[in-house]
Write a structure and sequence with these properties.
2 domains, binds S-adenosylmethionine, 27% helix, 459 residues, 10-stranded mixed β-sheet, Archaeosine Trna-guanine Transglycosylase, Chain: A, domain 4
């Protein structure tokens, strides 16, 4: 049994009444549900159901989401390394659905690490338009960038900035913004019991103060008639209904929009706010005693007022003569040339998302698709390129199957035997999905799987 903080227990009884609070506390005696979300950029849910060797049950509020049994460990399967799915807490899948970005839109995910919602947003956008996925903490921004890579995103720029600096660059710029705010994490006590140790009423108040600041910056960056989704994984009204209540009060040009609710998703509770504004019932709450998932809150807001806008210039592409080595690599390794805005950061070459603005002096962790590194007189492809294209985009393939053993050797960094005729950059596939690079020469494939991602120990 979980030892919930006493003050938290009492607060929830006072808010919910003892009967509902009893049902809520009972969930802490039950195991939590585990979820994965299919990466629709690489395969359909039906295709994963057909080929995955584990038992999957649909999550009713997310078409791409499935419950899995923890003992099946899908995180250990090579499909995970190939970016066919993202392991994500089931309730967390609801939030990106509420924002519902469209292909070609310009979207900001302001608090994005480790990237569950960003990778879902990018997939919903069909890898088109522009997603700026931001995280202020450098280590977390790197983890975010790795997930963006694994899921094969091409439309995403990962930034490592405080919201204030982004707001300086992008006033009135975004069609849609997600603020998945840092919060007191009450909804994750079962998933992350550590969160209980730093919980206190004072911590809730600190989180609420930070959230209000972040929301102000999001407001500045939203274009007129743009849509903002604010979400937390906590139950405290101070961070949920009351936060939205005071945000709306401060900005009369904002209007709450209804969020479609089904399969146990509940309305927000206006009676827990200062004003008791009935519109707050349009917000959504996910409760562990009402559905199979942890606690979440989401509010969807449109901004009717005008926004001051800064003129953006499109990012320029580098001159073609600087791409000589890249184009030679491309001829050897890819079926078709890539086009778009090519951009160097140092000697690293990126293909920027369409309509990408000049990124100026922003701290960039990843600028769209990372193609590779310009070395002295040659070009070396990046792991991201292997994961962002379908297998038939490559000239040479080393096809591995998940029922065999070689994929495990590959992920451990070993060389593999190969057809003698192949020479040069070759993509390694698992059941037809790219897994990484190798370099073929003299009947062996030298392993180019990134050292930092290699598996260690028992094969
Ligand atoms: C709830 S988590 C985001 C989870 C993420 N959206 C996902 O789906 O994987 C909140 C994130 O906000 C970041 N954060 C903390 N302070 C912040 C601030 N002042 N501005 C923006 N983000 C902040 C945290 O480091 C954390 O990564």
């Amino acid at each position: 049994m979980f030892e919930l903080p006493e003050a938290f227990r009492n607060k929830m009884i006072a808010l919910m009444g003892s009967e509902e609070a009893g049902a809520f506390f009972e969930t802490y005696n039950q195991d939590r549900a585990f979820g994965l979300r299919v990466n629709s950029l690489k395969l359909s849910p039906a295709k994963l159901l057909e080929c995955a060797p584990f038992h999957l049950e649909p999550i009713p509020f997310c078409q791409e989401g499935f419950y899995y049994q923890n003992s099946d460990a899908p995180g250990q399967h090579p499909y995970h390394q190939a970016g066919l799915y993202y392991i994500q807490e089931p309730s967390a899948m609801f939030v990106a659905k509420a924002l519902d970005p469209k292909p070609g839109e310009c979207v900001l995910d302001l608090c994005a690490a480790p990237g569950g919602k960003s990778t879902q947003l990018a997939a919903t956008m069909g890898n088109t338009g522009l997603l700026i996925s931001n995280e202020p903490y450098p280590k977390r921004a790197r983890a975010l960038s790795e997930n963006v890579e694994r899921m094969g995103l091409k439309n995403t720029v990962v930034t490592n900035e405080m919201p204030e600096r982004l707001a300086h660059y992008f006033p009135g710029y975004f069609d849609k913004i997600l603020v998945d705010a840092p919060c007191s994490g009450e909804g994750m006590f079962r998933k992350d019991p550590e969160a209980m140790h730093y919980w206190s009423p004072e911590h809730v108040a600190e989180c609420a103060a930070l959230q209000a600041q972040i929301l102000e910056q999001a407001y500045v960056m939203l274009r007129s008639e743009g849509i903002l989704v604010y979400s937390t994984c906590t139950f405290s009204p101070e961070e949920d209904e009351r936060m939205i209540d005071s945000f709306l009060e401060k900005h009369p040009d904002l209007e709450l929009l209804p969020i479609e609710k089904k399969a146990g998703v509940s309305n927000g509770r206006p009676q827990w706010s200062e004003s008791e504004n009935p519109d707050l019932s349009k917000t959504a709450r996910l409760w562990p005693h009402r559905l199979l998932g942890e606690g979440h809150f989401a509010a969807k807001i449109v901004k009717h007022g005008s926004a001051s806008v800064r003129k953006q210039t499109a990012a320029p592409s580098v001159k073609e003569n600087l791409l000589k080595d890249y184009r030679m690599f491309e001829q050897q390794a890819l079926q078709r040339p890539l086009n778009g805005i090519f951009h160097f950061i140092g000697n690293q070459l990126f293909l920027l998302p369409d309509d990408c603005p000049d990124l100026g002096r922003l701290k960039i962790v990843r600028a769209g698709l990372h193609l590779g590194e310009q070395k002295k007189n040659r070009f070396e492809p990046n792991h991201s390129l292997a994961l962002a294209l379908p297998a038939d985009a490559f000239q040479y393939q080393c096809p591995l199957v998940s029922s065999g053993e070689d994929w495990n050797r590959y992920l451990h960094g070993e060389t593999l035997p190969l057809d003698n005729a192949l020479k040069g950059w070759t993509v390694v596939t698992i059941d037809g999905f790219p897994l990484g690079w190798g370099k073929a020469s003299g009947g062996i494939l030298k392993n180019s799987y990134p050292k930092g991602l290699r598996r260690r120990g028992i094969k």
